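Before relying on records like the one below, remember that each one covers exactly one chain. Contacts with other chains, cofactors or solvent are not represented anywhere in the record.
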Amino acid sequence: MNQEEFLLQHLTEGKKYQQICNENESISLTNLREWWETGQELRAQIKRSNILFDSRKGKEEFAEFQKAGKRAFFEWYRKQPRHCAYCGITEDKLQKLFDYTTGSLSTKRKRGRSLELERRDSKSNEYSPKNCVLACYFCNNHKSDVITEEEHRLYFAPQIKKYLEDKYTQLQEDDNR
């Protein structure tokens, strides 16, 4: 067992520290505590994946992901590019733009800092590995179920990216003053 496997078992499968130690005799509680402390980046990724999973848990249209479980959903999530599938804005730029204290953008429900789960074909209403991508708050909300993926990429995504890149540039310039 390694740190990643420990964090996945603990955070996606709900295994307790003691259970993990019992199943892996060469691992001590001290090892697990150390792995917890030093695994902040992976823990953050798993936490974001779990939030996306839990927000749709129990919904019929999420059945394929739910049947596979949180761990499989995380494996899908971690393979996704860390930029919006439509406009291409990177997640690190979104985090800065929507930062609660220094960012220039905000939403009432505190969305925007992370990429969101988006159905490519909204009319199918199915959340599945084939039909889902990660998208920024703006593209996810704008595309909705009226505009097709192709139409959004052609007519709207370039302007959304320009807006976000301009806002990011302005934020950087303000920081340098």
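The chain has a mean pLDDT of 95.
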